[in-house]
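Researcher: Next sequence.
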Amino acid sequence: MANSSTNETLVRSAWRAQARLLAEACLAAAAFWAPWWLKWTNTPPFSAIYPLGFVLSIVLLLGLLAWALSGLTGLRAALRRPSASLMMATLIAFVAWAVLSQGWAFAKLRQGGAAQGNSLQIALWVASALCAISLASARLRRWMLSALLLGLLFYGLIGAAQTAAQRDLGLQALGEFRLDPRQSGVSVVESALGVRWLRPYSLTPHPNLFAGAVLAGLCAALALSLDERRRQRILGRAVWGLGLYLLLMSFSRGAWLALGLSALILLPVLLRHADWRRRWLPLALISAVVGAVFMIVYQPFVLSRFGDGQQTTEMRSIADRLVYTKIAIHAIGSHPLQGVGAGNFPWYAADYLWRYTDYDLRGDNVHNVALLVTAELGLTGTALLGTALLMALVTAYRLCWQQLEAARLALLALALAYLVVGLFDHYPYALLGYAWLWWASLGLTSQP
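Model: Next structure:
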């Protein structure tokens, strides 16, 4: 009887170990898949199950199922850590608040599925983030960064080919959009002479999202560049140079600023550790060379991107963002505590534009994560999400300050970069893949 009981225990332990490996593999696969706009079903936008129409959601659900089969490995240990338990509790409360917001959603009568679908999306990335917090380990951090590095090469080369051809590559079966720089609605940069240059999309819906994917890959290249092994460092520096050039080609000003500010915030950590002090200097030199080459090649477009000649595309982009910011402030003033409901800001914006303006604009998200969260879920939702974010960042920075682990530092760099991007764009929160990647990075880097 004793031998039988022991054998059953060993079988269960082996099964749970395999289930944990599968869960970690799914999380790593989700990191690679996060930017990919690939759907397995044509679920209409603003429907209750819209987030489940993406292949990424299937990968995340498989990971959650494997984690459940492993017996929710690591959850009890995480709950015993005050920082982790507080982060998890506030995220769960944030999900509950989003679900409750369906009751007062602005468009609940006309488009009730908007709040339901957005609540489901929030629940999915929060559950996946809790899984990452529980399974956090050096191995999983390395797997995640390897997936992001592969993603940089995959998405980056497709984006580079699009700009070289100045059109799409015919990969619509893989989720590529049809791209023609001569058509309205396609994102381009325009020189003072009127030359329109197609920005890279890769397999994402917009060049700014392409830049978000490249940012993640650059953080993975940073980890390689700080590795103890010389061959790994050489590979990391080569990928860093390629990734930086791709990031510059995106002409995403928010992503450029995010990379610079996150590097500045982490500079004290790099200077603190003697082994890292001499390893990051080659990256600075490579960055200077790549930036100079890019400026020489694309100078007319860079100047126009920063206001030279006042091109219509740039002026329209800035004006639109100001309009949505004004609408978000109006929504917050009208519904300060509870907001207009999860996923309902585009509908509120559309109603505002119809009532008070004659602008040729459709309802869309405001390009600022803090404003978007506050407009949709009020000061209550912002307080919950902000508490989780602050706790994760403080804990992660402290651990990076104390420990010499390049993978942890790289994931913190990604979390900080997306935090900065959130000041100028909404995708780190509004889109499933990027929200999951942001909070998974926070979860993995804030756990010992």
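Model: The mean pLDDT is 92. The chain has 17 helices and two strands.
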